[in-house]
Structures are given as structure tokens and as C-alpha cells.
Amino acid sequence: MKITRFKTKEEKRGRRAARVRAKVVGSMERPRLSVFRSNKHIFVQLIDDNTGKTLASASDKEIKLGKSEKGAQTKVLAGNAVGKLLAEKSKALKLTKAVFDRAGYRFTGRVKAVAEGAREGGLEF
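The chain above was modelled as a monomer; its predicted structure follows.
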């Protein structure tokens, strides 16, 4: 029987996410902005790791994009809009600072758009 050292995509991302999480911890003053992206949608949360509670969340299911926008660019625009939406929700909670947790994803495309949208909305990383 041959033993393989290769891992699935999910296992590789889980290892990268654990590496990032070892360094990034959220508190009430600076919650952790966690990103999850699926093939279709993107979800973000502000998490207080001390109490283990989600303070605010947003997803692209809550926003509406125009019908003319199609393809991969729409996902990036949706990511930017989700970041802005989360920043608005954090302002309502009087939060201005956060720690960005990319959760093992590369900091490009939709993940980067979420960070830029949150910065435009007023969150500081």
C-alpha cells in the first residue's frame, strides 16, 4: 500500500488558517474580522475571541448588485460592498479598529476587496 503525503484543498487551507489564527486574536476593543468565501458567496464576521461571540456579520446575500454585472468581477464588487456593510454595522457598535483574519485564503481578489471595502467604510486594520 502506498502512503501519500498530499492533502486535500480543505486540509491545506485549514493548516494555513491555523497558522494565521495563532498570530491573530480578537478582543472587544479590536475584534477579529474573519472572512469565509465559497464559490458563490462571501461571508464576514467581527468576532470577540475572549468571549467567543460574534459581534456583527455581513454577507453578499444581504446586498443587491445590478443585473448587468456578471462574472468574476461581480464577486470582487460584492466583496467590496460586504466590507463596507460590515464597517457600517461596526460603526453602530462604536467599533473603529479590527484585526483582519484571512482564514488561509490568499490576500487577493475577493478577500482583498473585503479589506478595502471595510477600510473605505471606516474600519482600521
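Residues 28 and 48 are 5 Å apart (CA to CA).
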